[in-house]
Design brief:
Layout: E1 10-11, E2 17-21, H1 28-32, E3 38-44, H2 48-61, E4 65-71, H3 77-87, E5 96-101, H4 103-115, E6 119-124, E7 136-139, E8 147-150, E9 157-161, H5 162-165, H6 170-192, E10 205-206, H7 208-233, H8 239-257, H9 263-268, H10 281-295, H11 299-312, H12 318-321, H13 328-339, H14 355-372
Parallel strand pairs: 1-10, 2-9, 3-4, 3-5, 5-6, 6-9
Antiparallel strand pairs: 7-8
Helix pairs in contact: 3-4, 6-7, 6-8, 6-10, 7-8, 7-11, 10-11, 10-14, 13-14
């Protein structure tokens, strides 16, 4: 995610194809046939027992070959090296790479496919982040800030089988909504600061389409997010659920990549220093969006988003993150120290604010939350 001032030129990028709906996983052989006769499915541990059998059978029925490999753990340098080595043991390098699982599975699959210059597909099973559509992989090495590995293209296909995703735990969709909720708020701040957008690998500004995708995602979440969460908690695939899936995967994915990120993502990147159980990326980003609104003095939007976040299950105060009265102040100071002046996007806004202001905003949100109980 680049830093710098934009020129007059604009940029937009996206996956080649986006497919969403019930049972779409059955069409993977047809989609992959456009790139060759072989595929490797990198499958999350939870789904591996079933789909390590099912996917090869689907491809065999189509006159194709699919191999599978189990992926568990973080999208790290070690994991990437291990999977690249595994590919070299196959009869040939696959024509298509299919990542089936959560955000880190989709991310590591993109990295492996890009390593060999092949087609790669994202098949998200839990809608926790914007990862399925993006052109980059987040590398999460132990005890380090996340690092971006940027590829030469976005996924060739993003296939969201909502018969699968609706069966995932509802708290995973909470994370996806949290990640998406920040998209338009950060896009506006980045645009106002004339920062380059994430698309195009140059000094480009966002297109109108990129900003519109971010705004549409935001509007759908606020209108239908509560209904979608009710459906997700009961594993029911409703029109509202389908709309929010599109808002969290496609629209937010296009929105963040074709605009820019700001305080919410920059602050969340330091959460590894907090003395709490690790949170899903989007869960932290959703909370940090509220902190960002405090810093921007956007009281109207804070009053709108705070009850929404609380209602769907996003954290709205440091206690919700897992901090206690005994460790709260030290943890806030450590978090601010970790990101301020070290993560450029923390200050990707059109005004100056100090590290003390960032710390005070976190504490203010605690006070605000206490009054809303």
């Amino acid at each position: 995610m680049p830093s710098g001032k934009a020129s007059e030129s604009r940029a937009f990028q996206s996956p080649s194809r986006y497919i969403q709906g019930p049972g779409e996983i059955r069409n993977l052989p047809r989609f992959a046939a456009q790139y060759g006769k072989t595929a490797l499915a990198i499958i999350d541990t939870f789904f591996y027992p079933e789909y390590s059998q099912r996917i090869p059978r689907m491809f065999e029925a189509a006159g194709m070959t699919a191999w599978t490999v189990e992926f568990s753990g973080a999208s790290s340098d070690e994991a990437l090296a291990r999977l690249v080595d595994f590919c070299r043991t196959l009869p040939q390098i696959p024509d298509t790479f299919i990542g089936m699982g959560g955000g880190q599975t989709c991310d590591i699959n993109k990295a492996v496919g890009a390593t060999f210059g092949k087609a790669f597909f994202s098949v998200p099973t839990a809608l926790t982040t914007d990862a399925p559509t993006s052109t980059h992989t987040i590398i999460n090495n132990p005890h380090q800030q996340p690092r971006l590995m940027v590829h030469c293209k976005n996924p060739d296909y993003v296939v969201v089988d909502t018969e699968i995703t609706v069966q995932s735990p509802a708290w995973m969709l909470v994370s996806g909504i949290g990640d998406a909720l920040a998209t338009y708020v950060e896009a506006q701040a980045s645009f106002a600061n004339n920062n380059v957008c994430n698309a195009g690998a140059g000094d480009y500004r966002p297109t109108l389409l990129g900003m519109a995708a971010a705004r549409l995602s935001y509007d759908i979440l606020l209108e239908k997010g509560r209904d979608a969460m009710r459906a997700a908690r009961n594993h029911l695939r409703t029109p509202a659920y389908e709309d929010v899936v599109e808002a969290t995967v496609l629209l937010s994915g296009l929105g963040f990549e074709c605009t820019g990120v700001s305080i919410a993502h920059g602050l969340q990147a330091g959460f590894h220093v907090l003395p709490v159980k690790p949170l899903l990326h989007g869960t932290g980003v959703g909370y940090c969006t509220l902190v960002m609104l405090v810093i921007q003095n956007d009281t109207e939007r804070l009053a709108q988003l705070f009850p929404f976040c609380r209602d769907i299950g996003l954290p709205v105060c440091t206690a919700d993150l897992g901090l206690t009265p005994e460790n709260r102040d030290a943890a806030i100071d450590a978090l601010v120290e970790e990101v301020y002046g070290k993560r450029w996007n923390v200050t990707n806004v059109p005004f100056f604010f100090s590290a003390d202001t960032l710390a005070d905003a976190i504490r203010y949100l605690d006070a605000y939350a206490a009054e809303q109980r």
